[in-house]
Amino acid sequence: MDDAANHSPDRAGLILLAHGSRDPLWRQPIEAVHQLVQAMQPGLPCMCAYLDACAPDLPAAAQSLIAQGVKHLIVLPLFLGTGKHAREDIPRLLDELRRQHPGCQFDLQTAAGENPRVTSLLAQLAIEAAAGTEALKHTDFK
């Protein structure tokens, strides 16, 4: 379907950016986030991208979205914190993409792990794990 909304000047797209790994099992949680985004927002152009060891990389994902008519690219690093990649490598890559695509807007979001909701969920998971371990101590497996 080729309608005007798909080619509006401010059409946004999302890149879920992760570190990357040669191990396909490592990518499953990243791809699961992508699938949930697509299920929850089917009209939102969204791609996974990786810094290392697997494809697509950030420039390839950006190019793919731009080819779909996206002019506003939002990059969400799926990292737990703002380490060297988030502080230096990703901004450098985005600066290069801005030079290559001056008609596009690139917005870098804070690392997902620094979102208070993610921190809260991780704390909840830790507490549940501890409670589960405590419960196992009191279980008789005979």
From TrEMBL:
Example of a GO MF term: sirohydrochlorin cobaltochelatase activity
Keywords (A to Z) from UniProt: Lyase, Metal-binding
Record-linked InterPro entries: CbiX-like (IPR002762), Sirohydro_Cobaltochel/CbiX (IPR050963)
EC number: 4.99.1.3
Keyword Lyase carried by entry: yes
The keyword Lyase belongs to this UniProt entry's keyword annotation: yes
Record's protein name: Sirohydrochlorin cobaltochelatase
Protein's organism: Comamonas testosteroni
Gene name linked to the record: cbiX
